[in-house]
Amino acid sequence: MNTSTTTTGIAASGTGAAASDSATVTRARGVERLVTGQATSDGAGVKLTRVLTQDLQRRLDPFLMLDAFGSDDPDDYIAGFPDHPHRGFETVTYMIAGRMLHRDSAGHEGLLENGGVQWMTAGRGVIHSEIPQQEHGVMEGFQLWLNLHSSEKMNAPWYRDFQNAQLPKVTTADGVAVTVIAGDSHGVRGAVMRERTQPLYLDLHLPRGARFAQPLPAGHNAFVYVYRGEVVVGGTSVPSQRMAVLANDPQADGVVIEAGADARVLLIAGRPLKEPIVQYGPFVMNTKDEIYQALSDFRDGRLGETAA
Ligand code: FE2
Questions:
Q1: pLDDT tens digits, one per residue of 117-166
Q2: Tell me, what CATH number does 171's domain have?
Q3: CA 91 to CA 62: how far, in whole Å?
Q4: Distance from the CA of 25 to the center of ligand 1, in angstroms?
Q5: How many angstroms is it from 104 CA to the middle of ligand 1?
Q6: How far away, in angstroms, is 129 Cα from ligand 1 center?
């Protein structure tokens, strides 16, 4: 695992390469439970499925939320997410299909398109909007929330976006196409690295009959979300639109995912922070007092300030 403090790096050398090193996993994690997401809406009425809900925040520390959105009905997404604040964590948006424009109070702007990723560290605070740039067609993607350590929650905001062609990719000997959004896989370094939480965020396209092995540190929390087809993880079938929470087996050194038919899955893992989590809507801090501070900073117009 790379522990560099460098926050970004596009592994151009890995893009499109065929993996010669087959990752070795000698004892694979099992599935602890399957989770069906909850249908909800957010922003100005965007319909979505909350896959990782608040009751799983401790179990899946450092991850706070995973939303899946996907619809070909503009009424489900057209209103988008007008100006709203965040403090204390990072948001990672992965757009499978569609176009969404991001603008924030730190001066960042980016158009997120098919296969692109936007990584935003809210830190001490941003106010941003995420507005669809299409009036018809499919919009599909994911937003993951990744917590920050208490010592990093009040850091300056940070933002990067990556078009699909800029994302590090690798194809395994089994023909599994891997997009490495964060962390390391099969010798390829991800688009974003984080030292504290060491997130691994892979999008895997598995052809029928393929087997994919990924080493994982035993202490990291991990889950798989299937968004096309069906896979088998540690002997358990995981159908489409389900999250499999991987067991924390101290003897296990990774995960093995097998596809009986073509499948697409997200594999996400990270090192837990083991700190108190206090969430109030778009603010995630360690204490209630810090939440009150965030609310008063927002009310007083101080939350989106770029100066310290
Ligand atoms: Fe947001």
A1: 999 999 999 999 999 998 899 999 999 999 999 999 999 999 999 999 99
A2: 2.60.120.10
A3: 12
A4: 37
A5: 9
A6: 7
List, for residues 94-117, the tens digit of each pLDDT value. 999 999 999 999 999 999 999 999
Structure tokens at 56: 């799983």
Residue 308 domain-assigned (yes or no): no
Quote the tokens at residue 206.
Answer: 């598995």
Answer yes or no: are the C-beta atoms of 51 and 67 closer than 8 Å: yes
Residue 161 is part of which domain span?
Answer: 11-275+282-299
Instruction: Evaluate whether residue 75 is within a structural domain.
Output: yes
Q: Could you tell me if residue 73 is inside a domain?
A: yes
Q: Does residue 78 lie in a domain region?
A: yes
CA of 160 to the centre of ligand 1 (A): 14
**Structural domain count, the chain:** 1
Ligand 1 centroid to residue 225 C-alpha, Å: 21
How much is the pTM? 0.92
